[in-house]
Amino acid sequence: MFGLGVPELIFILVLALLIFGPKRLPEIGRTLGRGMSEFRKASNDLKRTLNVELALDEQPAPPVLPYRQSPQLDALRAARLPGGAPVPVAEDAVEAPGAGADAVAAPGPQDPARPEAIS
Q: N- to C-terminal Cα distance for the chain?
């Protein structure tokens, strides 16, 4: 890993034994082990988060039709009132928020998405 062979590792262990003593060496080893374990967990969490974010970015966005080409608006234009007259559809129809990419609503006092239209 760091270019250390067996003789170098033995020398480091003997030096650590002489510096810290036989009673503190196991405690230091446990502390280092816990620190490395927490570092691995944090590293794996970061990798997982990045992979999820990248996967979400790679998903194609659903196509959004302009409101003048919406199937719902076409259905409104084709609808008839009970007397046979066509349903009036405002040309400035707007997309209803939260109802999907191709949901369209005509503005008016009954439209909760456009509170400024209520007057």
A: 74
Report d(CA 76, CA 66) in Å as an integer. 15
Rounded Cα gap, residues 16 and 10, in angstroms: 10
Cα 45 to the center of its chain, rounded Å? 15
Using a CB cutoff of 8 Å and minimum separation of 24, what contacts does 76-80 make?
76/104, 76/106
The answer for residues whose C-beta is within 8 angstroms of residue 99's C-beta and 6 or more apart is 105
Residues 86 and 79 sit within 8 Å (Cβ to Cβ): yes
Residue corresponding to tokens 């005509």: 106
Whole-structure pTM value:
0.40
Q: Rounded to 5 degrees, what are φ and ψ at 105?
A: -135, 140
Q: Which two tokens stand for residue 51?
A: 């992979």
Model pLDDT for residues 44-71, shown as the tens digit of each residue:
999 999 999 888 888 777 776 665 666 7
Strands annotated E in the chain: 94-95, 104-105
